[in-house]
Design a protein that fits this description.
By secondary structure, this protein is of the alpha+beta class. The chain has 17 helices and 7 strands.
């Protein structure tokens, strides 16, 4: 699980949403003002918007624009520049597969709420968006629908018809005709699914882009990495989880020790975390989950030892936590990986 920071998205994404709202003759400025967001402020360099605000804007836009296909319209008008520096890096990647890896690697630059995951089989590559365990209350289906569609459109605008989709899955319900979605994606589309996922046919993902430039992608990657490092380090929650991930497996740590490491009183640590919308307990759980998934595949580590490493008092507590994280017991998960 990626390190936690308060959930937000790049400002250019909100500006695109604003443009789409305006295309319906609806005053986007009024919507943004109503939810307490300064639209002009989003035009500043490195501006970000809280995901909770984006979701409020989507809710109002869906009602006022009165179009169940508003995310399709946004996707069709998507340009790589709406993804800011990452959009530029995608445009000069080697091919679609390289762009997908870059997209997942730096997805937190776009939206640091959900997790973006890439998996593959012999014939398919899948891009999955899912809540990361801390941000579940902030997870929004309409925004994820728009994100997947925009990612597809950006890749299509760069690669043309060199790649095809096998299927796309949305986790929310949709009461209207889904044919416009299937016409757009040229593949089966499934709503009310258990995930948000776009499945690519592996054929065609390795056709080189016309403007591929490895030197430029390297430069852009370094800039994004530097920005993410600076952005993350502003948050106490990031520092807490970084410390937990480093020491959890080797040291006997508790909230007081973490507070002392950060030169804060335990009470001040609690207050700062609350301001960032997360608790120490949630960060500890997220850190345990990340380490568990990292170590579970190492069969040289007995489950009893893994229980101790993660700081659980007994194996039954670990098993309950792991089942909550993965849907299966540690034993079953290890045997089926």
């Amino acid at each position: 699980m990626p390190d936690h920071t308060p959930p937000s998205s790049i400002g250019s994404w909100a500006l695109l949403v604003s443009q789409i709202i305006e295309s319906y003759g609806v005053d986007s400025q009024a919507i943004f003002d109503d939810v307490g967001v300064n639209l002009d402020g989003l035009r500043k360099n490195n501006a970000r918007i809280a995901n909770a605000k984006i979701y409020e804007i989507w809710q109002q836009a869906q009602v006022l624009c009165d179009d169940p296909y508003i995310t399709l319209k946004l996707s069709q008008n998507m340009k790589p520049c709406a993804f800011d520096t990452l959009g530029m890096a995608l445009s000069v990647s080697q091919h679609v597969y390289d762009a997908l890896k870059r997209l997942v690697r730096y997805a937190k630059y776009l939206n640091n709420g959900p997790d973006f995951l890439l998996s593959e089989t012999q014939d398919e590559v899948s891009l999955l968006i899912q809540p990361n365990g801390i941000q579940i209350p902030q997870f929004n289906g309409l925004n994820s629908e728009a994100l997947l569609g925009s990612m597809f459109h950006v890749l299509h605008s760069i690669a043309g018809n060199n790649f095809k989709l096998k299927a796309i899955y949305f986790g929310h319900d949709f009461a209207y005709d889904k044919k416009p979605f299937e016409d757009y994606y040229q593949c089966p589309v499934y709503f009310s699914s258990d995930r948000y996922e776009i499945v690519f046919d592996k054929k065609g993902l390795f056709c080189e882009f016309a403007f591929a430039n490895s030197v430029l992608t390297s430069t852009l990657d370094e800039w994004i990495e530097g920005h993410l490092s600076t952005f993350n380090n502003e948050f106490v929650s990031y520092k807490v989880q970084k410390y937990l991930l480093k020491h959890l497996a080797y040291d006997d740590i508790d909230q007081n020790k973490v507070a002392d490491h950060l030169n804060l009183s335990p009470r001040m640590l609690q207050r700062k975390l609350k301001e960032e919308g997360v608790s120490y307990t949630e960060l500890l759980d997220a850190s345990r989950q990340k380490l568990a998934f990292k170590l579970i595949s190492d069969e040289s580590i007995p489950l009893s030892e893994l229980t101790f490493i993660l700081g659980f008092t007994d194996q039954s507590n670990f098993s309950r936590a792991f089942k909550r994280w993965s849907g299966s017991t540690p034993h079953h998960y290890r045997n089926n990986k």
